[in-house]
Amino acid sequence: HDQPLDGAVALVTGASSGIGAATACRLAREGAAVALVARRRDRLDRVAGDIAMLGGEAVGLEADITEPERAEDVVQDTLDRFGRLDILVNNAGIMLLNSALHTTVQEWDRMISLNVAALLHVTHAAIPHLIYAASTSPRQVADLVNVSSTAGRVARPGSSVYGLTKSGLNAFTESLRQELLSERVRVSVVEPGTVDTELVNHLSDTVRDAARRRIDGIEALLAEDVADAIGYIVTRDRRIAINELLIRAGDQT
Ligand code: NDP
Question: Which intervals hold domain Ketoreductase (predicted)?
Fold first, then answer.
């Protein structure tokens, strides 16, 4: 039977693992053709293979989107492959928790260049195509979903610049939401709490241990839980816009 996203095309950044991979599978299950963007070719192939097994359609686009031309390319490659772009999920992100005293400015730069600059570059390239998709699709709407974090709402020691990127993303999202409203492009932000993914693998051992101690005893969310939230947002009738979705683990304060 018909799926809500039949005929729609989605681009998911950071689709080689965690929330992005789960979201790509979820959107494919709803009927969308999905472009998967990340740097690790083998992992993209694995996710594309999973989607093919579900009977869905996916293409892996290997790209480091912190290179501005590559950020534009992935949008163009999606159009070349699937002909349109209905849904953009800006999910790629990195969290290098550390105190301002002990971190390096290079760690700060890495977070700003992926969580902010790369996201802006992909978004800017995608907007005209989302507008076009909204005016031509049977859904009569297009979707832009930004993956932020509870760290964009609650500041804690060690997350100063990560929180800066995510709270900035919340402001960017709300402004874009208002700008694109009349174009029928819905702009949403999803703010997950603690999710069990590879995100913490980039931390040094001491910082990772401290982060783990803080979440000790909490049953973390699964990537699929966040993918569910994103699936919910993009499958609503065009009358309905879920602007913001804050989703924490049940035990998380
Ligand atoms: P993962 O580390 O599993 O996913 C990050 C994704 O981003 C990977 O697919 C990675 O792929 C991709 N990526 C990293 N650098 C680049 C780059 N330069 N160019 C393209 N892709 C890149 O972690 P999560 O799934 O947890 O993270 C996804 C998002 O969720 C992030 O924005 C994160 O801030 C957010 N989030 C996560 C939470 C959590 O607790 N896990 C909580 C709240 C928000 P590759 O290495 O192959 O390039």
Answer: 8-196
Give the pLDDT of residue 210.
74
Please enumerate in sequence order all residues whose Cβ is within 8 A of that of 35, keeping only pairs 6 or more positions apart, or say none: 9, 10, 11, 12, 58, 59, 61, 74, 77, 78, 81, 82
Q: In residues, how long is the chain?
A: 253
- Atom 33 in ligand 1: residue holding the nearest Cα: 93
In degrees rounded to 5, what are phi and psi of residue 163? Answer: -65, -35
Q: Is-contact 87 26, C-beta < 8 A? A: no
Cβ atoms < 10 Å from Cβ of 40: 13
Report which of 188, 189, 191 is spatially closest to residue 241, judged by C-alpha positions. Answer: 188
Atom number of ligand 1 nearest to Cα 151: 43
Indicate yes or no: pTM above 0.90: yes
CB 135 within 8 A of CB 184: yes
132 is catalytic: no
Instruction: Look up the CATH architecture of domain 9-247.
Output: 3-Layer(aba) Sandwich (3.40)
Cα 14 to ligand 1 centroid, rounded to whole Å:
5
* Residue of 40, 38, 34 lying closest to 82 (CA atoms): 34
